[in-house]
Amino acid sequence: MKLTLKIWRQKNSEDKGKMVDYQLDDVSPDMSFLEMLDVLNDQLVGKGEEPVAFDHDCREGICGTCSLQINGKPHGPDSLVTTCQLHMRKFNDGDTVYIEPFRAKAFPVVKDLIVDRSAFDRIQHAGGYISVNTSGNTQDANAIPINKDDADKAFDAATCIGCGACVAACKNASAMLFVSAKVSQFALLPQGQVERERRAENMVAQMDAEGFGACTNTGACEAECPKGISLTNIARLNREFLGAKL
Ligand code: SF4
Ligand code: FES
Known about the structure:
By secondary structure, this protein is of the alpha+beta class.
């Protein structure tokens, strides 16, 4: 396939940035999207030009770093896949592909397609954990029976990889789907009860402090989430937060 790529280039966080056109021939439909960018970067380096900076790590849909806005959609045109799992067979010969970083005030661009998502880390630090004694006298996990339905819901929430697609998809750049997943994975389990109230309060307060917008229930986050995190988690977060305040 021959593709025209329109890629956001930005030297650093101060630079204004602009879209730059590149032509790429011989793109295999079996390449992943990131492999296609690797080929482009090889060619740029060969010509003595600066390669396109983009984030990636696992390339298996696990780490959540490969967050790109492709033709206006977080993680591109496919459903329930991350950018690293998107394949070029989803595009056609002669296509023009727009590649941009995720856009949100709380995700400032570091360089080209890389954004700073440390706001998510700070939200996690505010309460997205449980305090457990690991000094050698820990209880066996199976000693506490857990209702299967709750275990399944907690597991589904725990599959959130913190990619930020929910924020990029939302017209308000809201992080509610992410925060709700991180609150739900503990709120549903006995191990998460001790810090339950302050977890909801502190994580929501940090989310607001980071500059994420409010949720107006449009559902774009759920539609674009590569892990299928459900909006029902946002309803749970609202209940958790209200319960904590009361
Ligand atoms: S809720 Fe979905 S879209 Fe948002 S950070 Fe988690 S995995 Fe990514
Ligand atoms: S590189 Fe880890 S999820 Fe894509």
